Amino acid sequence: xxxxxxxxxxxxxxxxxxxxxxxxxxxxxxxxxxxxxxxxxxxxxxxxxxxxxxxxxxxxxxxxxxxxxxxxxxxxxxxxxxxxxxxx
Length: 88
Description:
- By secondary structure, this protein is an alpha+beta fold.
- The protein has a single domain, classed as Ubiquitin-like (UB roll) (Roll).
- It contains two helices and seven strands; from the N terminus they run αβββαββββ.
- It has helices at residues 2-10, 33-42; strands at 15-19, 22-26, 30-32, 52-56, 62-64, 70-72, 78-82.
- A hairpin with a 2-residue loop joins strand 1 (15-19) and strand 2.
């Protein structure tokens, strides 16, 4: 019993979300905005850590996810990350 529990905890299951329409593999379901952006950068999404992250809601609206706000993340969710200081 203990061996199976240990094995299950060491084999994290990967799931995929998108950031700016590009796939980002994740293994944790509770992440903050900074962690999601770091995972996206690690997966090759061309964003910067200071970009503003938002989650695309089912109705098409977007919810900003601050760097320090932890959220539940699920398979197939979509996020957008854009420069936050666009004062043009």
